[in-house]
């Protein structure tokens, strides 16, 4: 087992590099502009475009996918439900509602990474808290059902918000569907550290998650307070989901599918982070390739969230049949 871990690490690194290369090539920029970055300076116009737009978009996809994958893993382990995910627990819809509410009220500029993160945190905590209240006193495994109810309520509030100011619908679309396009280095400067820190905390809590996963009685017998442990784990999941939402909006199904793939590979937090990163970067590569379909002089833009929703629907159907 020990000798297999370095081999898996090398394979994961190679796969990440391959996905990153495909993602940059899918951006539509000349190959010379991409390889020109290896010279240490982006001198030409094409190289600057790659460095200032394509590379931040790649990093946004990797970080967002890793955050959602780990958040989903934490939720599934803590709630003991294989269908638990940020979008089914009220956290993701709440985070998006927080961002759109903050933008509508003018609490922060549209390009403010810190403002979006704080608003997503407040909204995600609201969504998670609402789900927790709806399921108070019940088995944590059934929390997903109440999460769906809370998510529906939050989605209704978001719709009301958009109806109140329909002129903002164009800007809101990227948050509602989910897209990693348009992120630049300024956005990554804060959120990348937030997500990396959240993943580090989740990794440090791996032992606690393993103890909580079988049952509350099992956790209590090993000296872990189930309620306190669950509160810590859910706080980490909310923090990671808020970080992802502040970067890319309502990306769905990555947090649902990535933990299942990681468990099949025999991994935990770090494995699911890599799987989530690869999944979202791959989905965005497909979105960019589809976006290069030209209709006359107009480019067809495909948000990343559309690709993950289509792929995730198939995963959800398969999981639902296996329950």
From TrEMBL:
Localisation: Cell membrane
InterPro entries: ABC_BtuC-like, ABC_transptr_permease_BtuC
Coiled coil regions in record: none
Pfam families in UniProt: FecCD
Superkingdom field: Bacteria
Membrane-spanning intervals of the chain: 57-75, 96-123, 143-164, 232-257, 269-294, 300-319
Main location: membrane
Recorded family membership: Belongs to the binding-protein-dependent transport system permease family. FecCD subfamily.
Species for this entry: Nonomuraea ferruginea
Protein's name according to its UniProt entry: Iron ABC transporter permease
Membrane topology value: Multi-pass membrane protein
Alphabetic keyword roster: Cell membrane, Membrane, Transmembrane, Transmembrane helix, Transport
């Amino acid at each position: 087992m020990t000798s297999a871990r370095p081999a898996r690490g090398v394979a994961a690194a190679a796969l990440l590099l391959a996905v990153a290369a495909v993602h940059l090539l899918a951006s539509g920029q000349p190959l010379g502009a991409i390889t020109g970055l290896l010279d240490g300076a982006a001198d030409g116009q094409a190289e600057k475009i790659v460095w200032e737009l394509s590379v931040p978009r790649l990093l946004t996809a990797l970080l967002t996918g890793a955050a959602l994958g780990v958040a989903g893993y934490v939720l599934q382990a803590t709630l003991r439900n294989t269908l638990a995910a940020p979008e089914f627990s009220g956290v993701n819809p709440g985070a998006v509602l927080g961002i759109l509410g903050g933008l509508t009220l003018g609490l922060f500029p549209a390009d403010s990474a810190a403002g979006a993160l704080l608003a997503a945190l407040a909204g995600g905590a609201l969504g998670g808290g609402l789900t927790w209240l709806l399921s108070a006193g019940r088995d944590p495994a059934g929390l997903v059902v109440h999460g769906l109810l809370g998510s529906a309520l939050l989605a209704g509030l978001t719709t009301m918000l958009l109806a109140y100011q329909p002129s903002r619908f164009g800007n809101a679309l990227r948050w509602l569907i989910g897209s990693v396009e348009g992120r630049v280095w300024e956005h990554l400067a804060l959120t990348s550290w937030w997500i990396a820190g959240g993943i580090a905390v989740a990794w440090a809590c791996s032992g606690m998650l393993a103890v909580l996963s079988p049952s509350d009685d099992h956790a209590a017998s090993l000296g872990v307070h189930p309620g306190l442990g669950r509160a810590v784990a859910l706080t980490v999941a909310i923090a990671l989901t808020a970080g992802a939402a502040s970067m890319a909006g309502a990306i769905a199904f990555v947090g649902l599918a990535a933990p299942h793939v990681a468990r099949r590979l025999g991994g935990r937090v770090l494995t699911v982070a890599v799987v989530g990163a690869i999944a979202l970067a791959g989905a965005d590569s497909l979105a960019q390739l589809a976006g290069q379909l030209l209709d006359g002089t107009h480019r067809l833009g495909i948000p990343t969230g559309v690709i993950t929703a289509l792929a995730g629907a198939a995963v959800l159907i398969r999981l639902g049949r296996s329950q």
